[in-house]
Amino acid sequence: MSLTLDSKTETGLPLSGRHAVVTGAGSGIGEAIALELARLGATLTLVGRREAPLQATCAKLTGSGHGHVVADITDHDGIAQALDAAAKIRGPIAILINNAGAAKSAPAGKTSIELWNEMLTVNLTGTFNCTRAVLPTMQAARWGRIVNIASTAGLVGYAYVSAYCAAKHGVIGFTRALALEVAKHGITVNAVCPGYTDTPLLGGAVDNIVAKTGRSSDDAKTTLAASNPQGRLVQPEDVARAVGWLCLPGSEAIHGQSIPVAGGEVMAG
Ligand code: NAP
């Protein structure tokens, strides 16, 4: 019996019948992940604070039954209610992709408490909030996939983004601890760690470099791409394919890992 055939459902798509939530699905990496999971047959709920980008992503998804919910992942009770409402429409949440995040930079000595708290809250507490909301359902179902979009900044340090680095290192610590807790529950928990990826978030970093150094935007992008041994920016689809693979039946043994998608920039997860 082939693993591929064994892992498919009657529709022929491996994630058919699975309700997947992708946070931050209105742009960049989250949009690419939503497209990939829909391609693999999942039914999607897209989460973000702005409705128009979520609607735009939703319109591009293959398959049917998808929807979106406008919610802020930093609101512990609010996101739990939003995911509960989505589960009432599309069924128990089987796949959670904690992708929503933000990256702001400042030298450590000039990092305000507001910036520090903002980075910790959106990148780390937001991941906890969404996970906390879906975990009991996954444990009851004895099946689940949680993928946290961390960063190479969760594996190594970068100057001038200490709050972001601390938050993403926290996401990886959370991933590892949770993986041990749920290892016997049929749930896998992993982190995917992109390097510099061509998205609106990276555009913000490029604008910052341009403003602070007077260099051109192309020059700033070339410098960022040069940190990748492949000499290119990671594409959102590169990240999405790794996430899709982690969600497939047959990926059960990949658990508690932090997988760089960075062209070789960080060699060990
Ligand atoms: P992006 O295009 O800016 O996407 C971030 C998404 O998160 C947006 O759609 C945003 O939508 C949503 N979001 C932000 N705060 C939120 C909140 N409080 N509640 C709900 N949704 C929220 O950036 P991206 O590059 O695709 O980033 C996606 C993830 O990859 C992030 O976790 C980021 O740290 C990580 N990452 C990115 C790179 C890179 O170079 N681009 C590298 C490593 C890791 P709304 O504004 O509508 O809420």
From TrEMBL:
Entry-linked Gene3D superfamilies: NAD(P)-binding Rossmann-like Domain
Protein's name according to its UniProt entry: 3-hydroxyacyl-CoA dehydrogenase
SUPFAM superfamilies referenced in this protein's UniProt entry, alphabetically: NAD(P)-binding Rossmann-fold domains (SSF51735)
Domain Ketoreductase span(s) in chain numbering: 18-195
Alphabetical list of InterPro entries matching this protein: KR_dom, NAD(P)-bd_dom_sf, Sc_DH/Rdtase_CS, SDR, SDR_fam
Pfam families the UniProt entry points to: adh_short
Similarity annotation: Belongs to the short-chain dehydrogenases/reductases (SDR) family.
Biological processes, Gene Ontology terms: monocarboxylic acid metabolic process
Organism of derivation: Parazoarcus communis SWub3 = DSM 12120
PROSITE patterns from the UniProt entry: ADH_SHORT
